[in-house]
Specification:
alpha/beta, 2 domains, Rossmann fold, seven-stranded mixed beta sheet, 17 helices, TIM Barrel, six-stranded parallel beta sheet
Length: about 475
């Protein structure tokens, strides 16, 4: 069977950053989840192709043509909740242009909202819920035999009478080291490069070392809900072996780890650092973590292992708001974490949420002042988007008002708390945050010092365009 796995088309820069021009080079990351699914299909003897519509810059018509070229017997789509509408549109086009080929949906949207997808997307034939390592192979084996569909854990499908059947979701994979390596040979590595100064401009790729979140209580995250994933992590040896393969076979020298809390375990970090030294593997990498999960010792271990930049979710500079979202951190922990990071010469990116339920312009200014005090290398000021199905969404329903229900990008106003007159006032506050943080002479000088080559200049201009897009 020929299986084509698809990441649906959206204009990522417009979608996330309100930048209207297309940029084929910067800001595209590989859809790593598809790689794991491809590995399972190949393990069961099927031929697989990947169509990454976003990184190729495809519109719907071009995406359908690229899929059709592979003559698929099955089309699988990886869907995030924020892009579910694009996936539904693609499914509709596929049904018209490539009739008779079944479409199955997986990904994070299927993990949390599997019961709704077949109702919302009439052109999708199947949904696989949960972690599909224990179900996708059996699904491929039995796809042509409806009498056996009930044996596939987590499979959602329509009965002949139109009713929807939802099989019991399979157990999680306890030891994620048992999961096959992603099918990296199916990716076009030339497509991928992080946003300006989120990588060092070298050969870039992403990895995931864990599933779930070690904390899992933040009200704005799905991990805090009833479908929270149990936290599990690859062994350091598995992660180093993946890095070595990417380096040796695909010339990758720059990696971003997508874990929520990379620095949670100091013993894991020690073994990770030691194995990288043993392999003489020099790869630059970035990660994300919580300010409550770093220390001088951890940060030194990470830097010795190749870490050059860390993403922290600070969220707000107001103590009451920070407590209300159950972040599990304090403003003082943020001060300590950024002081240590700066002292050790590790770059930092801090994210803040403006427009949280209960926020007022005065509280927003406290957040902006904290961002300037922490003096991170970069700062991102998100417009709060209460995601359906999270605790924050339930809070937002009773405080403030929704202007839009769908994600409109990092600065697109979807929700306005009662403390603001209207969405325009919140939009101006976000603009003010970016202006006050980035137009400081010390910050400008910091970026000028980072320019070492003509390519750095190009990346800087694109970064400026992102900033201008955020100001629109």
């Amino acid at each position: 069977m020929k299986v084509v796995l698809v990441y649906p088309p959206i204009e990522m820069h417009r979608f996330a950053y309100n930048v209207k021009a297309k940029h084929r080079k910067y800001g595209h990351i590989p859809p790593i989840g598809i790689g794991y699914v491809a590995a399972i299909a190949e393990k069961y003897g099927h031929e697989v192709a990947i169509v990454d519509a976003v990184s190729n810059g495809y519109d719907v018509t071009q995406c359908v043509a690229a899929i059709k070229k592979h003559r698929p017997d099955l089309i699988g789509m990886s869907v995030m909740t924020n892009v579910k509408d694009a996936a539904s549109i693609l499914a509709s086009h596929l049904k018209r242009r490539i009739p008779g080929v079944p479409i199955v949906v997986g990904g994070t949207h299927a993990y949390y909202f599997f019961a709704d997808i077949l109702k919302e997307m009439p052109d999708v034939d199947f949904v696989l819920a949960g972690e599909i390592e224990n179900s996708f192979g059996l699904f491929l084996t039995n796809i042509d035999d409806p009498s056996k569909w009930n044996e596939v854990g987590g499979l959602c499908y329509r009965n002949p009478d139109g009713s929807i059947e939802i099989n019991e979701v399979p157990d999680i994979v306890e030891n994620i080291d048992d999961i096959p390596l992603p099918s990296w040979h199916l990716y076009d590595f030339a497509l991928y490069e992080a946003l300006p100064f989120q990588s060092k401009g070298k050969s870039f790729f992403t990895l995931i070392t864990s599933r779930g979140c070690v904390y899992g209580k933040c009200t704005f995250c799905y991990q805090a809900g009833r479908k929270r994933q149990v936290y599990r992590r690859h062994s350091p040896s598995r992660v180093v072996s993946e890095m070595k393969i990417l380096h040796d076979r695909h010339n990758v020298t720059d990696i971003t780890f997508w874990d929520d809390t990379f620095s949670s375990n100091i013993e894991w970090l020690k073994e990770f650092r030691d194995l990288l030294k043993k392999e003489s593997l020099k790869i630059d990498w970035t990660c994300s973590t919580k300010v409550s999960l770093v220390s001088r010792e951890k940060l030194m271990l990470m830097k010795e292992a190749g870490c050059w930049s860390i993403f922290f979710g600070i969220e707000t500079g107001d103590k009451e708001l920070l407590k209300s979202i159950d972040k599990g951190t304090t403003i003082e922990q943020a001060r300590v974490a950024l002081k240590l990071t700066n002292e050790l010469g590790i770059e930092s990116k801090c994210a803040y949420m403006l427009g949280l339920p209960g926020e007022t312009p005065a509280k927003a200014r406290k957040t902006i002042d904290l961002a300037i005090e922490l003096d991170s290398t970069y700062a991102i000021f998100f417009a709060t988007y209460p995601r359906y199905g999270t605790k924050l969404y339930d809070t937002a329903l009773s405080q403030g008002s929704f202007h839009e229900m769908d994600f409109k990008g990092m600065t697109g106003i979807t929700y306005v708390p009662d403390g603001y007159k209207n969405g325009a006032e919140l939009k101006r506050m976000i603009r003010h945050a970016y202006t006050k943080f980035y137009l400081r002479p010390s910050q400008i000088a910091k970026y000028v010092k980072k320019i070492r080559s003509p390519d750095d200049i190009k990346r800087a201009f694109f970064g400026l365009e992102l900033f201008l897009g955020l100001r629109d």
